[in-house]
Amino acid sequence: MAGAAINILRLARAGIVLAQHGIRFVPKGMPVPLPLRAASLITAPLRLVTSAFLRETPREKRVSAALSQLGPSYVKLGQFLATRADVIGPELAADLRHLQDKAEPFPMAEARAAIERALGGKLEDHFIEFGPPVAAASIAQVHKAYVLENGRKKAVAVKILRPNIEKRFARDLDSYYFAANLIERLYPPARRLRPVAVVDNLKHTTDLEMDLRLEAAAISEIADNIATDEGFRVPGVDWQRTAKRVLTLEWIDGTPISHRDALRAKGFDTDAIGLTVIRTFLRHAMRDGFFHADMHQGNLFVDEQGKVVAVDFGIVGRLGIAERRFLAEILHGLITRDYHRAAVIHFEAGYVPPHHTVEEFAQAM
Q1: Is 207 tagged catalytic?
Q2: How high is the pLDDT of residue 331?
Q3: Is 37 helix (H, G, I), strand (E, B) or coil?
Q4: Cα dist. 319→87, 200, 285, 351 in Å?
Q5: N or C: which terminus of the chain has fewer CB atoms within 10 Å of its end residue's CB?
Q6: How much is the pLDDT for 10?
Q7: Which has the closest alpha carbon to 234: 292, 273, 286, 315?
Q8: Catalytic residue of the set 101, 294, 303, 338
Q9: Within the chain, which residues score under 70 in pLDDT?
């Protein structure tokens, strides 16, 4: 009972923060269980009172602001749900795409302590220079530092997990599981959306992100896979300065792929770069069965040689031989507009519930 009460209080706090940002609990036109409808009614006056203060904030950015205030696990939950319009509806999914994984950096003293605990000795034993954070996200932050390699000064990127982030995520995930189980038990129509499985997936993803050795291993594996590929590369891993909570990589001096004007000013063909990104992803997914699963524009740069460089391999995906065949046939069907064949493959793969017909699905496609 104590655990349930704590989870209820945590979820109530989250509900209040969402209400303060003017966010509806009940999506328009969607049937909802009685407890959620009651929560919406209780917080309606709060939304009314705060609405005057929110006029300057665009509606589509209020969800992002609320989740950022609630903390890193809510940011991750929001990013994950942004890909699940089938669960939360297209309007909320669209709003969540504005969510930026940015956070206040933690102090340099804590960064130093984390490195010394993870690698042993003093920070100066590992880095000849260590600068302030250059990027801070919900799970980790990145510093630019320098090491001596063969007598030469070399720039590196040092990624450090936030202090106590594992405990904070474990606490919030417990609340998510409590809510998901409650929804499945009290509202049978929601069971088809498998809310507990959604939280399972989120937990699996964040567990992987919180062991930076796994990210280092993913980078090394992809580097081996692409050794003979052109136009794409990944940072080199400094294994000597990598541990569970600290990851050291080659520093990437590149232009963000989203800066199209800057790339063109440097003489790069942005259409060719876009084609490289598409071909790279498909090559990794269908040739290797192992791919960067968070390959958005914030994680892609173009170096001085015109190569696309991917960073942040905390989330990667794997596909078996059968899944690769399904993906290839579906893409071929869509490209050639053979929608019936693409529909058949969806059914063979089990991606579409059997109560639909192939013909209906082909027509929808």
Answers
A1: no
A2: 92
A3: helix
A4: 24, 19, 7, 15
A5: N
A6: 84
A7: 292
A8: 294
A9: 1-2, 22-60, 86-87, 100-101
